[in-house]
Structure formats: C-alpha cells, structure tokens
C-alpha cells in the first residue's frame, strides 16, 4: 500500500512566462510631424539595426493603444511617450534622456539631470509640445483627432466613399 505522502503525477498547466523583448525602449512618435520624423531618422541611424529602440508611428491608422501601454492617440500626440520593457510609461524630456542613453549618446542630455537645467529644459519642452502642430503647419489637435477618427470609422465600416476633395 502506498504511503499517504506519495504525490500524484497530475500535470499542472503553468502560464507561459512572457519573453523579455529585445528592445530597451519603445518610442512613440508622430510620423506626420516633419521634425519628429527627422529626429527618428537620426535615432534609427544611431541604433544601426541593433533593435535597442523600437519606433512606433502613432499617426498610423493601425496604431492601437492596447499594444502600447494604453496610451491613446490624443495623449500620444500631446506629448512624446515611450515604454520600457517592464511596462513603465515615460514621457516628455525623460524620453529623450533615456533613448539617447540607450544609444550611447547620454552625454547630450546629461546636463538636463541637474535640477535647474532640467527644470528649464522641461519647461521649454512643454512650450514646444503645445505649439508643435502650429509651428509645423498642421491643424490643431482636436481637428487631427477628429479626422483620424473619421478615417478609422470609414475603414472599419467600409461605407465611406472618397471624393475628389478627400484625395
């Protein structure tokens, strides 16, 4: 007779351990902003195919918040955001500090870690972020969000027709 402490040989399902992504930071950027695209192109060259930075174009109609830290389009358009592999969301100048550090150029933003300089740079970024669309000749954020929503609804419902004015 088996002893009472004999273990049963039942199989136990274990939830798969999510693989740690190969990227160190996921940068969300506006692919319709000429200055943003210029910066991203520079950073891509510095990444040199190593995959340390993943670049996500929030202007793409297929952008989904659930795949990117729950950051919706309007929020992402208002300020630059990035995600870390552990799911932490960072924004504003901290995004640039982290990306540049990861790409071996941390010295460029090193001074912004000093309290007074950091405060000034953060304040300047807030001004830039508020005026970015107007300075690059684009409509205001409300119009961009509404136009995007209309395009997505048209694609989803497949009932909108392009006119000559839409092209």
Q: How does this model look, in words?
A:
It is globular and about 50 Å long. With 167 residues, it is α+β, with helices and mostly antiparallel strands. The chain has helices spanning 34-47, 73-78, 93-102, 115-135, 141-157, and strands at 25-29, 53-57, 81-83, 89-91. It starts with 24 loop residues before the first strand and ends in a 10-residue tail after the last helix. It is built from five helices and four strands, in the order E-H-E-H-E-E-H-H-H.
Widest sheet: strand ordering = 2-1-3-4
Number of helices: 5
Report the helical percentage. Answer: 40-55%
Q: Secondary-structure element order, as H and E?
A: EHEHEEHHH
Number of strands: 4
Identify low-pLDDT runs: none
Q: Determine Rg (CA atoms, Å).
A: 22 Å
Tell me, briefly, the overall form: globular
Largest sheet: 4 strands, mixed
Describe what is shown at a glance:
Helices cover 41% and strands 10% of the residues. It contains five helices and four strands.
């Amino acid at each position: 007779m088996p002893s009472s402490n004999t273990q049963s040989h039942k199989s136990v399902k274990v939830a798969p351990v999510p693989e740690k992504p190969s990227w160190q930071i996921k940068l969300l950027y506006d692919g319709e902003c000429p200055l943003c695209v210029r910066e991203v192109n520079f950073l891509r060259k510095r990444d040199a195919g190593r995959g340390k930075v993943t670049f996500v174009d929030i202007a793409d109609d297929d952008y989904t918040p659930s795949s990117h830290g729950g950051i919706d389009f309007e929020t992402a358009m208002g300020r630059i955001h990035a995600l870390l592999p552990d799911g932490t969301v960072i924004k504003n100048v901290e995004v640039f500090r982290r990306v540049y550090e990861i790409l071996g150029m941390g010295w460029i933003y090193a001074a912004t870690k000093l309290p007074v300089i950091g405060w000034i740079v953060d304040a300047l970024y807030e001004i830039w972020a508020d005026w970015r669309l107007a300075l690059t000749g684009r409509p205001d954020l409300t119009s961009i969000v509404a136009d995007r929503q209309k395009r997505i609804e048209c694609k989803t419902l497949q009932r909108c027709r392009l006119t000559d004015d839409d092209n």
